[in-house]
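Collaboration report, partner site 2.

Our partner group contributed sequences for two proteins of shared interest, and the home lab folded both. The records are reproduced in the order in which they were received, starting with the first partner submission.
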Amino acid sequence: MQLLIRYFAAACAAAKSESTMVDVADDITLGELEHILAADNPDLAHVLPRCSYLRDEIALADRTRQLGPTRTIDVLPPFAGG
């Protein structure tokens, strides 16, 4: 399946991009997706473990869970302030 990955704040800076498209297997887990996104990018690899995620605008925290049919993943690093 093809996913739009949108990066915000520190994740955007680490990825050096606001978004990217990736082709992944239909049964991929969030943890496996993190591994793919972090490949060859140590800055992003450092940020991703602290991030939270939205799967088609719904929070997703379990990194062992398969994504299932998905169009968009938002990568949200911890934010400071109110």
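Second partner submission, folded after the first:
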Amino acid sequence: MNDYSPVYRRCGCTDPTTGRRRYGDTCPRLADDPDHGSWYFSIRIGGQRVRRGGFRTAQATEQARQELVGQTPEPAPDAGLTVGAWLDTWVASLPKRVRPSTATAYTAHVVNVLRPALGHHRLGALIRAHVQAVFDELASHRNRYHVKITAATVQRVRATLRRALNAAAAHGYLTDNPARMLELPSPRRTRPVTWSQPRVAAWLRDGTRPKIAVWTPQQLAEFLTKVADDLYALWWLAGLRGLRRGELVGLRWIDVDLADATLTVTQTLVELPGVVAESEPKTAAGNRTITLDPATVEILADHRRRQQRVYDEHATIAGEAGFVFAWPNGRPIRPGWLTHRFTFLVTDHGLPPVRLHDLRHGTAMNALHGSASLHTVQHLLGHSSHAFTADVYGTVPDALARAEARSTAATILAAMRQTRPVDVLQHRAEVRRARLRQAPLAGVTVKPRAELRKRSA
């Protein structure tokens, strides 16, 4: 069970290899059978862990959890209130005011980092030195793969604590936020690079790979050719139009206009503990209309015909509000499953490794290396800031860079050709004369040229 999960599902199945140990929340049937097992929730109230279970659905479990939270009075502003108790109270109120995925991330930060490290302090006695020590330790921490936590992750955890302590200050528990003015490592943005032949050779030789790498057009074409019998239309959209994974699985036919050759991103699917929920796009700019080329229109039209035949076989009624990419019963595809499926296909076909999100990077770079402007790429990807798009993808297109390199080299070579007939030959003669003056041959006297002329006359 993930500690940060508000609700979770588990069963009483036992491991057949031992005959005694229970699977709990790791039973393989839980992923395939939605009716297998029971739902539980766990919450910390007043420093005590409270667990309830036996519910049949995630919705009923969440409702019971919310009811219990609503019955719990807000802690009084007294000297005994700890940071841990306040964080529990703050987390319990999050689902009502923030996006579900954001609430899940905040809860994970609280449970996995902030409460264990700071929970024992009295809230009113928390000072900046306490917080700085925790984040110094976090910045040097290595995960189970022996990889240091990134500076961006440290900043996100700090943002969670800062927001929680801002709420405490608003309730009168603090006069200042000790999470302000911390000295933290600055995130460094890594720009994507292409899987060039030397990089592919190094990866095949010893596993060396860039932090963020994208496929070349030829490599993307190879992938699309090999997955023609898989979710072809979905992988095509991801590779050529750069939709996020939640936008791909949340796309509905009502948002696709094949006659007008456009699709509109109006929602995204987010994966919460035990449930897949519809949500608004990540940013306001994420709500956008994307233009489709004729090939994409034909691929989507063919996909719709195939999907309708599958629906007819399974007696599925979806309609215009149905998902563009769904299971035969019309249920949406989980974003997490999509990531695992993509990773499997890349590995199975022996292609240079990229993440599903890297297809967005590839879309941007291929567009910029064509004729697209940064503004066009910003709209295509749904970025809220032009500066962000320029910072990540603001490189000179290959065609322009190669033209500049050829032009510079041609200029220098032309200058060298102009100086060679006079200056270069004269320089060589001066070098020979200097060498003769410094080290004449043994037994040979070098006489001035004027004397040689007189004797010849």
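Feedback sent to the partner group on the second submission included the following. The first strand starts at residue 7 and ends at 14. The longest helix spans residues 398-438.
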